[in-house]
Design goal:
With about 725 residues, the protein is an alpha/beta fold. The protein is about 30% helix and about 20% strand. The N and C termini lie far apart (about 55 Å).
Length: about 725
């Protein structure tokens, strides 16, 4: 009896499966990892099909070396999701399939993670922790607080504290911890009383738990969206099913994890994000895949996680650009969450105070069910927003007199202040006043950012670094100066104005070390820091009860951007960061420094009027036939010379089939012409019909793959999130 043909996905940039002799494999093995010969090496692949015949001559087919029978194959719904991605985003199925697996599973041999250990406080531990810990032992206190609410597994505890494993061993040696088996129930906290709008949202979703229903939960900042999520997760768990919660950034997971763990202390939770070690990620992924973890909380890649009993998907901060992957497979985790919910016939909740215009239009058109939370859950009022006209109040070192005065008054009352500037480093430009030289990046069409404390110039696009020159390289002038403000420069200025303040700087540079951001959040919550300087890292999703003032610096750049989404993103960012103020019993206020106080965006912002802003923006989009009223794709190319990238795009354009319903524009240089040493160009496609655009791409992409260019790298971006 002849062997069946095994069709295997491999991590190579070719849109095809590779045929091998099946070596006893059957349809029941589809979804398993397999080891196969490829070239001169042995590769790990994923078995996706079993066929009777192959286009390859039988004598040239090599056999599958081995199949992984130590773990269950990927479920049919996950395989269908991978195939959909390959079809919709026109990306090689093998690269999608292998990227969706934990890194450890992309190698044939790997060290299996240790079995999960479940810890609980002993009687002596309850006496010693957490009150017996030093006040500044922030990480230890966070770990102890979680254990005080009930037993927890090592995987969950590791997500709360960078050195959790060492602390757990130390506490176990002291007799403060004991290892427990099974699901030890713990006393749950008293649930807060729901507002009528929250109850209505829960009831509407709860009535449709066994059917596909997409909900857009539009709640103002502090309106209790998380409480709605938790009530619905509770209902889903009660039906014996799992819940998947997606958050946009790793920085939001610790606070969210603590709330979920405190609400469900007897429920296994898997937290998945890019900050995990290989072993941690594999262990948590396996717990989700085998159904042990009943709640999975993670960033965008978690949308691919196998979940046999999936009953609900929640996408928090659904508008956030972090849900869109910008390298490799360019996909939207939010859109895939909706696809997966439809596939599994379950509800999906997209939550935001500032929904994306695509989601808002879907709700307006009746494709999504709109749920509104118009009031803050605590009864607190929305913060008072004021503009500071920087044409009249000239800032010094980025800070105007009204801003400094209000900061001083707030600190004097014992309250916390957030100064928001979405620019890292000391200053965005190092400038020579004699000849107008600015420090350029040699590898990008951008300027180097000055990082004064590290004595470095750094490119935030490609990572290039160099020393700060002693004099102007162009004219020799020793008087070169920093222009503009970054978080470090603002921090220095505030330290001079408020030397008694306890400051923390929350940006990517200050939170690179594992666990540093979690520690910083704990310091803010504990009141150990009262003056916070932050970027978008701190703008969303965080709840600091004593923070009553937000000061926004240098927000005007996006008002006149060439990117048609720039105003939408600025409005969302400003509304989100403003929402950090006055979330508890103390009134909040927000000062926004701007040189354009008459801009229409600010009128909607001051009125907390997202609906009005969205209506205005959608009218503009509709007149210009821009998304969501059209559908786009962009073919991007990069080469050592711009001419080569443009020539290839012109040749690619000539290969595209003619379809009147799809407009194909002329190739042009990218907005950032050069990045990481390569020059870039792009070719845009647009259509009022998603189906017509996809039909053209299906016919066009195989032609491009048949003619791979030698000196040009290219990729297709469907539904591009940026220009």
């Amino acid at each position: 009896m002849p062997h069946k043909i095994a069709r295997v996905a491999l991590d190579v940039p070719l849109p095809k499966l590779f045929d091998y002799k099946g070596n006893g494999l059957t349809e029941a093995d589809i979804g398993r990892r397999v080891k196969v010969p490829f070239g001169r090496k042995e590769w790990v692949g994923l078995l996706l099909e079993i066929a009777d015949t192959s286009d390859c001559p039988p004598e040239k087919l090599k056999p599958v070396i081995e199949a992984d029978r130590n773990r269950a194959p990927l479920a049919d719904d996950v395989l269908a999701l991978l195939r959909f991605c390959a079809s919709y985003y026109h990306y090689p199925i093998g690269q999608i399939a292998l990227a969706a697996l934990p890194t450890a599973l992309r190698r044939w041999k790997f060290q299996a993670p240790r079995a999960a250990v479940r810890y609980a406080l002993s009687s002596s531990g309850r006496l010693a922790l957490p009150d017996g810990l030093p006040p500044r032992a922030v990480a230890q206190r966070r770990l102890a607080a979680r254990l005080s609410s009930g037993p927890a597994e090592t995987a969950e505890l590791a997500g709360l504290c960078a050195n959790a494993s060492q602390l757990l061993r130390d506490w176990q040696d002291k007799g403060w911890l004991e290892i427990v088996q099974g699901e030890n129930a713990a006393t749950r906290a008293t649930l807060p009383q729901l507002l009528p709008a929250q109850q209505s949202a829960c009831d509407q979703v709860g009535s449709r738990l066994h059917e596909f229903a997409p909900f857009l939960l539009h709640g103002i900042t502090g309106s209790g969206k998380t409480e709605v999520y938790l009530r619905l997760v509770d209902r889903v768990l009660a039906t014996g099913r799992q819940a998947l919660i997606l958050v946009p950034e790793i920085g939001l997971t610790p606070q969210f994890t603590q709330r979920v763990a405190a609400r469900f202390p007897d429920t296994p939770i898997s937290v998945l994000h890019s900050g995990l070690s290989e072993g941690e990620r594999l262990q948590r992924w396996q717990q989700a895949a085998n159904g042990r973890a009943r709640i999975v909380l993670g960033t965008r890649l978690s949308v691919f996680t196998p979940l046999p009993d999936l009953g609900l998907i929640i996408v928090d901060e659904e508008h956030d650009a972090s849900f869109s992957q910008q390298e490799g497979l360019r996909y939207s985790a939010r859109d895939l969450a909706v696809f997966r919910a439809r596939q599994r016939n379950i509800p999906v909740i997209l939550g935001s105070a500032t929904p994306s215009l695509e989601s808002w239009q879907n709700a307006e058109a009746g494709r999504y069910i709109l749920l509104n939370l118009p009031a803050r859950a605590t009864g607190a009022k929305l913060p008072d927003l004021r503009l500071v006209d920087t044409r009249l109040e000239k800032p010094e070192e980025g800070l105007s007199r009204p801003a400094l005065k209000t900061i001083g008054e707030t600190l004097a009352r014992g309250e916390q202040v957030l100064v928001f500037i979405n620019r890292r480093g000391y200053a965005p430009v190092l400038h020579c006043p004699a000849c107008a030289w600015v420090a350029p990046c040699p590898r990008c069409s951008s300027r180097l950012t000055l990082h004064l404390r590290e004595h470095r110039l750094r490119c935030h696009h490609c990572g290039h670094e160099e020393k700060i020159p002693a004099q102007c390289p162009a004219c020799g002038n020793p008087d070169i100066r920093a222009l503009g403000q970054g978080t470090q420069r603002v921090e220095d200025a505030l330290a001079r104005h408020f030397p008694e303040a306890n400051m923390v700087r929350a940006d990517r540079d200050a939170t690179r070390r594992k666990g540093s951001w979690e520690t910083m959040q704990a310091q803010i919550h504990a009141g150990e820091a009262n003056l916070i300087i932050g970027t978008q890292l701190i703008a969303k999703g965080h709840d600091f009860p004593n923070l009553t003032l937000v000061v926004v610096l240098d927000a005007d750049g996006a008002l006149f951007s060439l990117d048609f989404r720039a105003e939408e993103r600025l409005f969302a960012q400003l509304m989100q960061v403003a929402g950090r103020a006055g979330r508890a019993d103390k009134p909040g206020q927000v000062l926004i420094q701007t040189g354009f106080p008459q801009h229409p965006l600010f009128a909607h912002l001051l009125a907390h009027d997202f609906a009005g802003f969205a209506h205005e923006q959608l009218e503009i989009r509709q007149k210009g036939m821009l998304p969501p009223f059209s559908h786009q794709a962009v073919l991007r190319a990069e080469a050592a010379r711009l001419a080569d990238a443009l020539d290839w795009l012109h040749a690619a354009r000539a290969l595209a089939p003619s379809m009147p319903a799809v407009e194909i524009f002329e190739p042009v240089g990218a907005p950032m012409l050069k990045k990481a040493g390569l020059e870039r160009a792009q070719l845009w496609l647009q259509s009022a019909s998603r189906a017509d655009l996809q039909q053209l791409l299906r016919a066009w992409m195989p032609e491009l793959h048949k003619r791979p260019p030698r000196n040009v790298r290219w990729h297709l971006d469907v539904d591009p999130a940026e220009n």
